[in-house]
Amino acid sequence: MKARKWAFWLLCAAICMCIAAPAAAAAEAAVIRIVLDGKTIKSDVAPYIIPRVNVTMVPLRVISEELKASVDWSQADQRATITSHDGKIIRMVKGDTVATVNGDIVRLDNTVLLNNGRVMVPLRFVSEELGLQVNWNQSNRTITMLSAAIDHPSDGTVTPPTEPEPSPGPDASTGMRGAWVSTVYNLDWPSAASYLNPVKQMGEFVNLLDDLQNMGMNAVFVQVRPAGDALYPSKLVPWSKYVTGVQGLAPTYDPLAFMIEEAHKRDMEFHAWFNPFRAHVDAKTESLAPTHVSKEHPDWIVNAAGKLYINPGIPDARQHIINAIMEVVNGYDVDGVHLDDYFYPSNVAFADDVTFKTFNSAKIQSKADWRRNNINEFVRQLGNSIHMANPQVEYGISPFGVWRNKAVDKTGSDTKASITAYDDMYADVRTWIKQGWIDYVTPQIYWSLSFNVARYDKLVDWWAEEVKGTGVDLYIGHSPYKLGTKEAGWQSAQEIVNQLEYNRKYLEVKGDVFFSAKDLRKNTLDIINVLQTYYSEQTK
């Protein structure tokens, strides 16, 4: 029985040889012939290659019947169930890019397909789950399969072919090409429809990565702490409701481990994105888990305009956030730790008078300066913790795009923004850069080249000068979510290209990050083709 199981391995590997064969041979119309232990296997649907993804599809029923495995196809569920002679149960659903093997989830290179009434499965999955020893003969387009029960000729060896590698993503040397992936409100991933359905949830993320890489992205910045919670098993904070629909309810897999593995399979960087001080998206606490910070430490929480924030002025609260982030740094193979601009909320009252009096050992006179010092201490201490634990992990922050207006501070940018990072969010980004507390900064420059209040080019000029000579990398945050809106400059996807071209003026600009994945995938104004064309030209 095991002999025949191993035979299936070789079939799959051999079909990989078909993919790796020269393009001229791949274009031939000749049918691929399959021979198992000297017997020709007949099929009305031959194996074939899907060019777009370079994946070979195998007629599962024919192969399974030859190997004495039972196959069941549920038309209602569009689900194939294969039970091998040794009891292995494989389930695949049409449209899903993951399958289950004895209950374990396995990624598929391509979804199950129906062709002339036959169930077709991707080669990689088949080759990982069943085995054959195979020899591919290009001249007569024949796959010869030998099970372990057949003695190999003494003068011949079987070389297991390898499946062609997927098209590589952009070389890291070309710079950062990232996309933010928001999990709050299930904006980018996972969908609410995937709650308690890990197969669907993982399939969605696989598709998301494939789409982004196809556009030219080589990194993802995934929100793993949307609101005082976690998309990973934590001893400090509860599971996010955006995974299972209920805060504190654990999924049956580790989403963070899965996402990192899938990103790295594609040579894409994975940056774990944390919202540091947002505790909850509203003021309702009934549905929050008992381990949520608002329940365990209500004295740390400030209700600001109907949203809950962790008070940055309380040292223990800041350390709690650092500890939660360090769980990821110490437990996962992340490429970076990424913070957004959720420090103090802007343009709303923030009740911290008591905190100002209680936790102000430095006797700072101005509450604004005290708030900035709180954030500075948090940024500095977190950076020290990350770099001591793992110097290879990059630490970066994405602040609001305007530090200060020139009218308020002569060293600020030539802008007239109504809010600024320094004055309204108490984010003293200049100090973080000059002190070298962070490895990169990604200002959110979400305005066009023709938006006079805060022009894109003027802001890139300012930020490039700000990081010059500091060793801090500059990535620019872009706003494809504005494409097609009425705001000045966003009526054509060429705006994004013009911005990317402008960045090339500066050696300090090391790459770009787009907000967000869903807005790229919507393909407004043909942005996908625009980015593909632009990036392909840059790599020539």
TrEMBL record:
Region entry Disordered, spans: 153-174
Pfam family, one: Cu_amine_oxidN1
This protein's record includes keyword Signal: yes
Gene3D superfamilies xrefs: Copper amine oxidase-like, N-terminal domain, Glycosidases
Signal peptide (UniProt feature, chain positions): 1-25
InterPro entries given in the database record: Cu_amine_oxidase-like_N, Divisome_Glycosyl_Hydrolase, GH, GHL10, Mao_N_sf
Keyword line: Lipoprotein, Signal
Residue ranges of domain Glycosyl hydrolase-like in the record: 176-485
Segments forming domain Copper amine oxidase-like N-terminal: 35-144
PANTHER family with a match to the protein in the record: GLYCOSYL HYDROLASE DIGH
Protein name: Uncharacterized lipoprotein YddW (UPF0748 family)
Annotated organism of origin: Paenibacillus endophyticus
